[in-house]
Structure formats: structure tokens, C-alpha cells
Amino acid sequence: MNKQAAVDYIRSRENQYRSKTAFWFGFTLFFISLISLAGCYRYHVVERDGVLVNMKVVKHFIRSGKGAYYSSDFFYNGEVFSEKTNKYFIDNHPVGDLVTMKYVPGISVVLFPDENTDWMFQFGGVIAFIGLGFMVYYFRPNK
Q1: What's the total number of domains in the chain?
Q2: Exposed, middle or buried by CB within 10 Å (0-12, 13-18, 19+), for 99?
Q3: What's the angle, vertex CA 126, arms to CA 125 and CA 127, rounded to 5?
């Protein structure tokens, strides 16, 4: 085998390996984004079809320090819902206060009236298209 044939063989093996890697990377991105989009659908349904109801604040949860986290539990119709909040909300709404939230019966998600979940679908869609791009790259004609 001459030197040029050996180089061509090595390059073809490298391209084949890169193509398989691109395919599996794209497949993984696409699959994960579909799972993410399916999870975000509940939030979208509540945003689109939710009715405004008054829920009672029953508990605040505060984790301070690096990566502070605030959440509150709301009670409505015999169910308790948890929603991520912020320090401003906790300071202005003590336990026992009534707060207006969006609610759909049968879905365990509540949203604030002005909360927007479109960014979740946009982000998931972009990741899905990037994954599709990698998979299409695998099936491109060799040059």
C-alpha cells in the first residue's frame, strides 16, 4: 500500500467516525428535546386554557446562600400546588394571603396570571432542529 492510499484510508475512517458521532449526538439532542417539549406542554395548557382563581398561600420555602431558591405552596379546592416565587413575592404575601393564579382542573401546575411559557417551546424547538441538523449531516453525500 503506497503512502497516499494509506492517508486516504485513514481520512475515510476519520470521516466515518465523525459522521457516526454526529448522528448519535444529533439523535440524543433531538430525543431529549422531545421529552422536554412533552413536559412543557402542561405549562402551555395552563397558560392557554387556565382560569383565574384565588388560592391561599399556605407555606413559603426559602433556601438562602449561593443559588438562593424561593417557592410557595398554594391551597385550592383541596389540593396543594407548589410554585417557584421570588423574595419580593414572599415579602409581600404572608401565609394565609389570597393570590390570583391560573389553574386547570386535573393538571398539577399553576401559573401566575402574567407568566409566559413560550420561551420553553422556542428553546426546545431550537434544540430539536440542531439535533435534526446533525442527523442530516450523517446522511449527506460523501465528497
Answers
A1: 2
A2: buried
A3: 90
CB neighbour list of residue 76: distance below 8 Å, 6 or more residues apart? 53, 54, 55, 56, 101, 103, 110
Residue 45, in any domain of the structure: yes
Measured distance CA(45)–CA(33) in Å, rounded: 18
Domain extent at residue 72: 53-103
Distance, CA of 138 to CA of 26 (rounded, Å): 9
Please name which of 64, 53, 65, 55 lies closest in space to residue 93, comparing C-alpha atoms: 55
| Mean pLDDT on 88-107 | 91
Q: What is the pTM of this model?
A: 0.67
Residue 98 has pLDDT above 90, yes or no: yes
